[in-house]
Amino acid sequence: MNSTNQTLGRTIESQKDELAKLIVDEQWARNPQFKVRYGEVGHAKCVQDVKYNLAYLSQAIASNSPSLFAAYIDWVKVLFEGLKIPTRELAESLEITGDILELRFPDAATIVKDFIELGLNHLTSAPEAIPSFFDDSQPLFVLGHQYFDAILKGERSTASRLILNAVAQGASIKDVYLHVFQSSQREIGRLWQMNQMSVAQEHYCTAVTQLIMSQLYSNIFDTPKNGKHLVATCVGNELHEIGLRMVTDFFEMDGWDTYYLGSNVPLSSIMQTITEREADVLAISATMAFHIPLVADLIKQVRTSDSNRHIKILAGGYPFNIEPELWRQVGADGYASNAEHAIATANTLLAA
Question: How far apart are CA 344 and CA 337, in angstroms?
């Protein structure tokens, strides 16, 4: 990674609280009607939103990845459209962000300008809505729709019965994971992003899917073992851990002995688990771009450990799908875009 970009990205991240307030205060000074329209609560929310903007911008700069920032602009434009916040307000906020950052970091003004201009240009072309993740050409399309309708209505027993009956009648568990659970989770995220689902609904639906996944474990954990060991973990306080849970279950179905840690696990505990489980592969997941440094920190710890430095490390999650070379930047041995890709990559790494 470019050292100038890394330094600038880290500095913006460390100063984002102060910078966010400066940016919002300037925008509100230019738009006195905001005080009436949004009030004090709205001002605080604006500051929080700009902190997120800066968090993603700083990481995109540190990674020298315009695509990471463009993907964030795609996401936030849809979010603001759902909240009925005019796109022009986001554009103005980005312009002010550029002005303030260029003044504060004159030696890196060109870098800032390039990223802000990219964001502004992308904002004009980014879609205002996201199409459904359910595709009638995919396997188990009808089951997926029935399942999603059931969890949306809070009908947990119906959702469970649909899945268990389908598996009993011969549906592949992998297909259920990919085309029912995964599609449903993506659809949940889409509806939340478009302000058509509450956080409470999102959490409920995810919890139901995790529960029903556990009801399939008697089938999954029956798979004969192949002698390979996987430890899987998210970094930091990642809230989006179900994707890695699905990946881990695919490894289990492939015969691996797996140990899934989830999120919010202390670094020392992860290191201890890798040793105790005699892991051949460590799978690390991050969904939020600003958690990329935590992935790099964990990998560095593993690489400098006498007992764990031999293991192969896979990185995955949304930022790694957006930026193809990101896994190399954080020091991983490989990257996987989905569960089946993860298994293939892990087997290739161990065979090398």
Answer: 11
Q: Are 295 and 284 in contact (CB under 8 A)?
A: yes
Domain 3-125 = CATH 3.40.710.10? no
List, for residues 73-113, the tens digit of each pLDDT value.
999 999 999 999 999 999 999 999 999 999 999 999 999 99
Q: % helix / strand / coil in the chain, to the nearest 5?
A: 70, 5, 25
DSSP class of 224 = P
CB-based burial, 129-161: b 16+ in 10 Å, e otherwise: ebeebbeeeeebeebbbbbbebbbeeebeebbe
Q: What is the pTM of this model?
A: 0.92
Question: What is the SS3 assignment for 134?
Answer: coil
**Residue among 326, 227, 222, 213 at smallest CA distance from 281:** 227
pLDDT attached to residue 126: 87
Q: Which CATH superfamily is domain 141-218 in?
A: Methionine synthase domain (1.10.1240.10)
- 41 vs 37, 45, 66, 195, CA distance in Å? 11, 6, 32, 19
pLDDT tens-digit profile of 7-45? Answer: 999 999 999 999 999 999 999 999 999 999 999 999 999
CB atoms under 10 Å from CB of 102, counted, come to 16
The rounded distance, in Å, linking the Cα atoms of 346 and 227 is 13
Q: What angle do CA 100, 101, 105 make, to 5 degrees?
A: 125
Domain 224-351 architecture: 3-Layer(aba) Sandwich (3.40)
DSSP string, 287-338: -SGGGHHHHHHHHHHHHT-TTTTTSEEEEESHHHHHSTTHHHHHT-SEE-SS
Query: Are 170 and 143 spatial neighbours (Cβ–Cβ below 8 Å)?
Result: no
Residue where the block lists tokens 């201009």: 117
Distinct helix (H) and strand (E) counts, the chain = 18, 5
